[in-house]
Each structure stands twice: as structure tokens, then as C-alpha cells.
Design a protein that fits this description.
single chain; 3-stranded antiparallel beta sheet; mainly alpha
Length: about 170
Amino acid sequence: MMLNIKEAVEQLTSSGIAASDDDVMAWIKEGKMKAEINKRRTTTYKINVKDLIEFIIQTHASQLTAQLEESLQENRSLTEQIEILNTRIHIEQSKVRTLKKMLNTQIEVTEPSTFHYGELLGLNQDSSSHQMKKEFKKLLKALHPDRGGDERLFKVFNEHYENLKQSSPRD
């Protein structure tokens, strides 16, 4: 069964391929679609249904291949982002472990009577208890488990904050 250009356009459109008469003519001239010249008229083509179906399948296959390639590229990009995030998590966990070791070492080395919370927070020895409380609050906010912080480290610093509140007069 042979189709003319208009019938081929209708079939292409019904199969989800946007096409016009000019598109079909261009595909025929480019060799993408097989067609025979109408023997009665030299300006018209006849397209075999089998050839049209083959063209439709190839077009859909190339579209699906392009979508697959796009998905694979996106997958590679997401995999790279996951690797970066895992590296950042590893670095942050390493920082937390180091901070815990430093904190425990400082607490073990320092006698309780000479221990100054300002040193723990990186403040001067003469900083006020109000400044220390403010810094503790910032640190506790950052370490809070609901914000992605480390629960054990939060508890350690919270305990020191409570000790500071009890030992210092109200500001």
C-alpha cells in the first residue's frame, strides 16, 4: 500500500511525530525516508507504508536514545554530587571526632578549679560570663541534633553550659 505526502503527514502526526508536507519532502530528499516518484507526475512521491512505519520506529528510537543519554548524564552528575557530599560528611565527622578528643584532653588536663570556659570557646580569660553564655548558645544551636549536629557532642557542651549557668551570677 502506498501513501501520498499528505497521508504520510497524517500518519506521522497520529504517531506523535510533528511533521508537515515540507518536512516529509525534506526527509525524502535527505534520504531519511524512502519514497518513489509518482510515474504520472514527477513532483509527487509515493511512500510505502512499511517504509513509513520503519521511519516512525527509527524516529522514536532516536528520541528515546536521546532521553536515555540525558538521563544517564543526569545520573552521572548526581553521583558526582553524592560523592562530594559524602566527602564533606566524612570531613565534618572527622572534625567532630577531633574536637571531642581535644575537649576531653583539655578537661582531663585542667584541674576543675582552674578550668575556664572561655578557653574552651576560644575567648579571652577576662571575657564575661554573659559573653561565654552567648558563645555557648551559638555553639549549642549549631550542634543541636535537630539541625544535623552531633547529639553526643551537643550533650557534652550543654552540660558545660549548665555548669557555667549555675556557677556564674545572673547577668
